[in-house]
Design a protein that fits this description.
Structural class: mainly alpha
Number of helices: 16
Order of helices and strands: HHHHHHHHHHHHHHHH
Oligomer: single chain
Strand content: under 5%
């Protein structure tokens, strides 16, 4: 090799690096654009009740069916679906006020535990009866019991769930939860519950924080406050549930003996951010409410980008045969959960 040839090698290598970085950044940008489209779609009447998360997943799924998976920018898309997903879960911890849960919500915690246990086991039981996909059904049971798409995203790495199942589960839970939240608001004037009882019913029976807020708000400030408190208790239980699932996966031999389950370090970040938001913000560090709202909106948008990355893995051909029965199992569980919770008010 001549001296002239030797000087060309580093230039070629540098060019390849720039090309790889451009494709990686392009993949992240691609998920950003679809997430932005989902955000815009969620402003359209009708879709405003569905939310940007489900709207973006729908757009990503449609893109996959028409143009296929964007293989060239896979690296950036996977960064969004994995790294940004964990980052969003960490930021999600700011929404959990541990101090409020401990001092005011311990009574509701018993209901919350019952909701989680009931939702998971009944969904699995119905899924077995229907011979539904076990992995997707378990994700839907956890999403129903804990906190919707965020819970599904958090436990998926522990359960070794496929990215496709995570995306399908998040989409289903967002859509069905919205339907139930609207149903709660329609039923509210006719069911004879006080505002506080209605708030508890919403907080214990509905799927995501956004769904609880949507349903409880028409009941007034007291209903919304107690509803969100009940919901925060379920979010709080996501952490111990995750460690129980880790133990269960190892105990039941769901992974090979020489395969280690990746420790969910992002949940430690979730706890740290929860402690920071509960005991530092507002007491030792004053952050304007509008800034906290911006952080909350950013968290939702980052989670939306992650779900776009997951949604691009969804094949509608598989969805027709795979998702219907888990959806039925989760829907029946949600109806029974709402009904039994109502009877205990």
């Amino acid at each position: 090799m001549t001296a002239k040839d030797k000087t060309k090698v580093p230039l070629q290598t540098e060019s390849n690096r720039l090309s790889s970085f451009s494709l990686w950044a392009g993949g992240i940008g691609f998920t950003f654009i679809i997430a932005l489209m989902g955000y815009g779609l969620a402003k359209v009447p009708g879709f405003d009740h569905v939310g940007q998360l489900a709207s973006a997943i729908v757009i990503a799924v449609i893109y996959r069916q028409i143009w296929g998976y964007p293989t060239k920018i896979r690296g950036g898309v996977e960064f969004s679906s994995k790294r940004l997903l964990r980052f969003a879960i960490i930021l999600f911890g700011l929404k959990l006020n541990i101090d409020v849960v401990i001092h005011q919500g311990l009574g509701l915690m018993v209901r919350d535990i019952g909701t989680i246990v009931f939702s998971i086991f009944l969904t699995i039981l119905i899924a077995k009866w229907l011979k539904a996909d076990a992995s997707l059904s378990l994700l839907l049971g956890i999403g129903t019991g804990v906190c919707g798409a965020a819970a599904i995203a958090a436990v998926s790495p522990i359960l070794k769930a496929k990215e496709e199942d995570t995306a399908i589960g998040a989409g289903i839970i967002a859509l069905v939860g919205t339907v139930f939240a609207i149903g709660y608001t329609i039923l509210r004037p006719y069911i004879g519950l006080t505002d506080v009882q209605y708030g508890i019913w919403s907080g214990v029976g509905l799927h995501e924080i956004a769904h609880v807020a949507l349903a409880a708000a028409p009941g007034g400030h007291d209903a919304l406050a107690i509803g969100l408190l009940a919901k925060l208790g379920r979010v709080f239980l996501l952490v111990p549930l995750s460690f129980i699932l880790m133990y269960w996966m190892k105990r039941r031999g769901k992974v090979q003996e020489d395969t280690k389950i990746e420790f969910p370090w992002f949940l430690i970040g979730f706890i740290i951010m929860s402690i920071f938001g509960s005991y530092v913000v507002g007491k030792y560090l004053i952050i304007p409410q509008n800034v906290m709202n911006d952080i909350s909106n950013l968290t939702t948008f980052i989670l939306t980008m992650a779900m776009v990355g997951l949604g691009l893995n969804v094949s509608l051909k598989d969805l027709r045969t795979k998702a219907l029965k888990p959806l039925i199992a989760m829907f029946i569980t949600s109806i029974l959960l709402s009904f039994l919770t109502f009877l205990t008010m």
